């Protein structure tokens, strides 16, 4: 039975979504093509009908996950988002969490196409609030962007550091608690000024 173009597109999207989750859970080297396709409900042989290589899928899955992360970050109150982001719940569920926190270290060792997907996703998240700053002087825009970079680096770094500790380690919670309190205090101060 021939697969329609629409079904082929849906199958590809399902593979990308499945890969995005598995890569966040296990890292890029922890997921083989056969395991990935089985998890998506397809045969290994069908992979190359959709993708030229695992690297192509890694880049597309990164773009997908990073877009979802950016949408989540921009869809509500920043304090609520960051309270969840720098939390034990997020830390303990990498498959459902942020692609940056789960895969930035892996991405650094991957081909340029994966790094480019990360750079584009990070830029998207940094630039999303910038449209609200159009009328501001360039120096104010630059300072606002710098604050977003610091905030992103601290939030992602807190989750990465916490994940590197044993699950039952008091340090894992201390890292999250200290960073979350600092981030939220900074946001409160920025709103007050």
Q: Into which percent range does the helicity of residues fall? A: over 70%
Q: Helix/strand/pairing class, anyone?
A: mainly alpha
Major sheet attributes:
none
Radius of gyration over C-alpha positions, nearest whole angstrom: 19 Å
- The first-level CATH class is given as Mainly Alpha
- Provide a count of the helices: 10
Pfam families: TetR_N
Domain HTH tetR-type: 9-69
Organism: Solilutibacter tolerans
GO molecular function: DNA binding
Describe this structure in words.
Helix 1 (5-26) packs across helix 2, helix 1 packs across helix 4 and helix 9 packs antiparallel against helix 10 (170-192). Helices cover 73% and strands 0% of the residues. The chain has helices at residues 5-26, 33-40, 47-50, 54-74, 78-85, 88-91, 99-107, 112-127, 138-163, 170-192. It starts with a helix and ends with a helix. It has a single domain, classed as Tetracycline Repressor, domain 2 (Orthogonal Bundle). It is built from 10 helices and no strands. With 193 residues, the chain is mostly helical. The longest helix is centred in the last third of the chain and has 26 residues, at 138-163. It is globular.
């Amino acid at each position: 039975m021939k697969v329609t173009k629409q079904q082929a597109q849906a199958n590809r999207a399902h593979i990308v979504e499945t890969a995005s989750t598995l890569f966040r859970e296990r890292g890029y080297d922890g997921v083989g093509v056969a395991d990935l396709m089985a998890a998506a409900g397809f045969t290994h042989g069908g992979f190359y009908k959709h993708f030229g290589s695992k690297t192509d899928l890694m880049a597309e899955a990164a773009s997908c996950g990073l877009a979802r992360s950016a949408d989540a970050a921009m869809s509500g109150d920043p304090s609520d988002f960051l309270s969840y982001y720098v939390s034990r719940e997020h830390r303990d569920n990498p498959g459902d969490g942020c692609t940056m926190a789960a895969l930035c270290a892996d991405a650094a060792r991957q081909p340029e196409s994966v790094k480019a997907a990360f750079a584009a996703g990070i830029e998207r998240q940094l630039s999303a609030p910038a449209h609200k700053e159009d009328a501001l002087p360039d120096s104010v825009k630059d300072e606002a962007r710098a604050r977003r970079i610091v905030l992103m680096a601290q939030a992602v770094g807190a989750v990465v550091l916490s994940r590197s500790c044993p699950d039952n380690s008091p340090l894992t919670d201390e890292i999250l608690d200290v960073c979350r309190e600092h981030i939220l205090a900074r946001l409160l101060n920025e709103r007050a000024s």
